[in-house]
Amino acid sequence: MEPLWLMFSGAFLAATLLPGGSEVLLLALVNSNPELWFSLFVVATLGNTLGALTSLGLGCLGRVAWEPEQLSRSQRRALALVEKYGVWSLLLSWAPVIGDILCVLAGWLRLPLFMSIILILIGKGARYGLLLLMMQAF
């Protein structure tokens, strides 16, 4: 149970605005507990998705205090991308650097919650799944 809790908390924190990467943690835990690979995959995906939804919720709360004029140039560019592609941009919520801001912007723009959850879950799960497949190949 300890590896699963460690994986969940690491994945959750990595998906918030806090720095950190859960990929190395997943690979290390699967390497030391190969019998738990599927449970670790599920827990990592759920933890990372819930962390991203926390960022989305923070974006909802910040809507009143965060005006477009206050955004940096890169944040305005990210905002333009989310406005252009809408909820589909959340398939990239797994990406380093931009993933966190995409989730915050999704909340700020009040993108549809159900579709946001589904697309974030798909993106996060695909990333961890590919990582585990690559681990098996090497």
TrEMBL record:
Q: Which residues cross the membrane?
A: 36-66, 87-108, 114-135
Superkingdom of origin = Bacteria
List the keywords (alphabetical).
Membrane, Transmembrane, Transmembrane helix
Recorded protein name is DedA family protein
From what organism does this protein derive? Shewanella amazonensis (strain ATCC BAA-1098 / SB2B)
